[in-house]
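INFO batch 0412 | record 1 of 1 | parsing
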Amino acid sequence: MKAVMYGAGNIGRGFIAQRLYLSGYHTTFVDVNTEVVDAINEAGKYPIYVTRGTEYVPEWVENVDAINGRDEQRVIDAIAEADIVATALGVPVLPFVAHIIAKAILKRKEANRPLNILICENMIGSNEYLHGLVEPHIPDEAKAFFEENVGFVCVSVGRTVPPTPEEFKQKYPLAVCAEPYSELPADAMGFRPVGCELPPIKELVAFSPFAFFIERKLLVHNMGHALMAYMAYQKGYQYIFEAATDGEIKYILTRALLESARALAKRHGASTDDAMQFVEDLMVRFENKLLVDSLDRVGRDPKRKLCPTDRLVGAFNTVREQGGIPAHIAVGIAAGYLFDLESDAGAVEISTYAKENGIERALEKYSGLTDPADVAMIKTFYDMFLAKAPFAAFVETLASMKNTH
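INFO prediction complete | emitting tokens
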């Protein structure tokens, strides 16, 4: 069996390709990083250092090669011959590859070969988004084949793949570090043709309806990650595990996770007990000291992460929609507007705008929040961070906000 992995970054190498290798696929990576492409072709394998307990355990991924993404014809040919395709490129890159995917689909049409694309991107509605990018490149006479035989399948990527320790990269330049978590939830309704057999991929689990799993990843997992990063930045920490083991941050984090998980379970009619179990498991995963995940990486790009539909504000709005009080999530949003990392242009932009124009105008401009009660809640914590209020003041304020019924 043949697979194409579009993107040879941390998720592509550190998670998806491993699932494919363990399932018996030969995987061809597609990437524009010439050094990575050459290294894959030269070595034909690489290790993933999986954190198990207090040690790193190397697990090898073999049966791989790579193609330079700029060689469009080779990419088209590889996709045309593949049994499964996956993307882990980052949402901003997808528009630049849509025409290539379309050409490969047209080549598959000639052989009447369906195609399923696992979209391993951190975006709600990634299936509709990529479909919308590819569809304009499909001529009218091929539209029926395209709609009936090409599956755009949402996948929820839950494994954390942080930067790899230098000692491992020096020994194996392609090495990746990852946590053990390896479940790969996918949207059962996305596969084509309708009713087809699912691809034989280890730990791929198909669900329907799938919205709950996508939102759980973004609005619980990613929300918690970002909240920790922004609060830890205020304390001068460097790494996520430091935040996860700080009692004050953990107090806010735990309650923020519960606020969002409960609201999501209510919205989708999902099991509250399962949602709570996910939160418990997530807390343990966040505390993994071997995942040396930096605040720079996790917190980067708050301009996107504080937008109306993304992790923090998206979770805040969901809790409001379900009748809850997202006070602990509001703490994370307030801290996000103070994340002024110099190397991050977006962070400097929004933090400076908030300081110069007021947090109220910043919330409207970047987060789409205008409701007076919502703005007042977040402003309260923003001002408390600026005043370096003691943690006890945060607890007291949070309690007063929660005790409104």
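INFO post-check: The chain has 19 helices and eleven strands.
INFO record closed
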